[in-house]
Design brief:
Blueprint: H1 8-15, H2 18-22, H3 42-51, E1 54-57, E2 63-68, H4 72-78, E3 92-95, E4 108-114, E5 117-122, H5 124-136, E6 142-146, E7 158-164, H6 168-176, E8 188-193, E9 196-202, E10 210-216, H7 220-230, E11 237-239, H8 241-244, H9 247-251, H10 268-273, H11 279-282, H12 301-304, H13 319-325, E12 331-338, H14 340-347, E13 354-355, E14 360-363, E15 366-377, E16 382-390, E17 399-404, E18 421-428, H15 434-438
Parallel strand pairs: 1-11
Antiparallel strand pairs: 1-7, 2-5, 2-6, 3-4, 4-5, 7-10, 8-9, 9-10, 12-16, 12-18, 13-15, 14-15, 14-17, 15-16, 17-18
Helix pairs in contact: 6-7
GO biological process, one term: methylation
Binding site for substrate: 212
Domain GCVT N-terminal: 41-254
């Protein structure tokens, strides 16, 4: 039985506003599908990528859009702030599409596979943006999307296996019988194991040394088994869904920006094209920070730390607004260390914690920012919160308070005293992990 298409705009209209559609207090945190929640325990798995070696199976939670044809480079250049001209085959880039107001759609990883062939991976909102403009602009391209496996049956087209940690390179050498060809960060080389040929991308989500292996899913089991076998004597640990979902907190990657698409009248046709049951229509907002205005949840690439990926050597959607925004960046990405005594009082001494709530950050009773993801990181014995704060509160060592709770939404004043708990916190840099901050992209 075929289901009738329901658009994002229809969902907004029925809900009454974008914020009424997306505001869902108490929403459960995201975790990757298919893989087990834990293999040896979430805490030990978090420690593996810091002090040993880990393998993460990323084959199931990312959407892939394949962009091919003579118009591919022009399309990707027109819809993003990236410099597509300086893009080697085998290289990957942090894809940065912005709306006309200069705020981000969502990021993604763009890999150039061939002369006229690219694959865009990650949260599907950026892929929807590319797909829409490819059709609306009449570009000479073919696009094909393989959705993540949250609700899609069958095997994905690609496998992704990530090996990272201090012993990652040793594991890789054992698996391949020697070191892989030298390659720079976010560049890849073609490699083989047995009958399988695939790419080895220098990349690691937790900000640790390592590789991400990408290839046809038919080789998934053989390649994964070979990597696990090679790592047995090194104590390799398989990362489960719970631990994996927390790894961006230390590496400084904000995973769930709100796409800047909900109110611009010129995007009415876009909202009519995007489905309601998509990231754009279902990714929940919740926490103690509430506003009736969805644009209060938008973010700039400058705030997110994507400045090194932005180029103004070409024309693209949102170019002028993004250039202007550089001179008035008001917020800075930081990591908050939540006070351990307060954490104990609110959450207890131990136990898994991962929260994507937008919680108020206050200084002397005034709002200075919001959290984006908070997680218990067992190896450092702290709850850390990746956040955006006003520049005046961004200096490491600054003391602030996190207001922890679930605002009920429309009908209650945004600043109502709801008796929410307060946790003291100290501002630290983002990325929090020193290797990710100082050496991750050194080459």
């Amino acid at each position: 039985m075929a289901w009738d298409f329901v658009s994002l705009q229809q969902g907004i209209d029925q809900a009454g506003s974008p914020i009424q559609l997306l505001w869902k207090p108490g929403s459960a945190p995201w975790k990757p599908p298919i893989v087990d929640d834990e293999y040896v325990g979430w805490a030990a798995e978090q420690n593996a990528w810091r002090s040993g070696v880990s393998i993460s199976d990323l084959s199931f939670h990312m959407s892939d859009t394949f962009v091919r044809g003579p118009g591919a480079a022009r399309l990707l250049s027109d819809v993003s702030a990236n410099n597509i001209e300086t893009f080697e085959i085998g290289q990957a880039k942090q894809f940065v599409p912005v709306a006309a107001d200069g705020n981000i759609i969502t990021d993604g990883i763009l890999l150039r596979e061939g002369e006229e062939s690219y694959v865009l991976s990650g949260v599907p909102a950026a892929q929807n943006w590319v797909t829409y403009h490819a059709s609306a602009g009449g570009y000479d391209v073919d696009l094909d999307t393989d959705p993540d496996r949250s609700f899609t049956p069958g095997d994905p087209r690609l496998f992704r296996l990530q090996v990272q940690g201090p012993a990652a390179l040793e594991l890789v050498e054992r698996a391949f019988g020697g070191p892989l060809p030298e390659t720079k960060f976010f560049h890849s080389v073609e490699v083989s194991l047995g009958d399988a040929r695939f790419r080895a991308l220098r990349h690691g989500m937790a900000g640790q040394p390592g590789y991400e292996f990408i290839g046809p899913y038919v080789h998934h089991d053989a390649v994964k088994d070979a990597l696990l076998t090679a790592g047995t004597s090194l104590g390799v640990i398989h990362i489960g869904a719970l631990a994996y979902a927390t790894n961006g907190v230390e590496s400084g990657w904000i995973p769930t920006p709100t796409p800047a698409i909900y109110t611009d009248p010129t995007l009415a046709d876009y909202r009519a094209t995007v489905g309601l049951y998509t990231y754009e229509g279902q990714n929940p907002l919740h926490g103690s920070f509430y506003s009736d205005d969805i644009t209060d949840y938008y973010t700039s690439p400058w705030e997110l730390g994507y400045g090194r990926s932005i180029s103004f050597n070409h024309d693209f959607i949102g170019r002028d607004a993004l250039r202007a925004a550089k001179e008035r960046v008001r917020r800075t990405k930081v990591t908050l260390e939540l006070n351990r005594d307060d954490v104990r009082d609110v959450f207890g001494d131990s136990g898994y914690l991962n929260d994507y709530g937008r919680h108020r950050i206050e200084s002397n009773g005034a709002l200075v920012g919001t959290t984006f993801q908070a997680a218990r990181i067992d190896p450092v014995d702290d709850v850390l919160a990746l956040s955006l704060v006003d520049a005046a509160a961004a200096e490491p060592g600054t003391e602030v308070e996190v207001v922890w709770g679930q605002h009920p939404g429309r009908g209650t004043a945004p600043d109502a005293d709801l008796g929410f708990l307060r946790l003291r916190a100290t501002v630290r840099p983002a990325p929090y992990n020193e290797y990710a901050r100082t050496a991750y992209r050194a080459d």
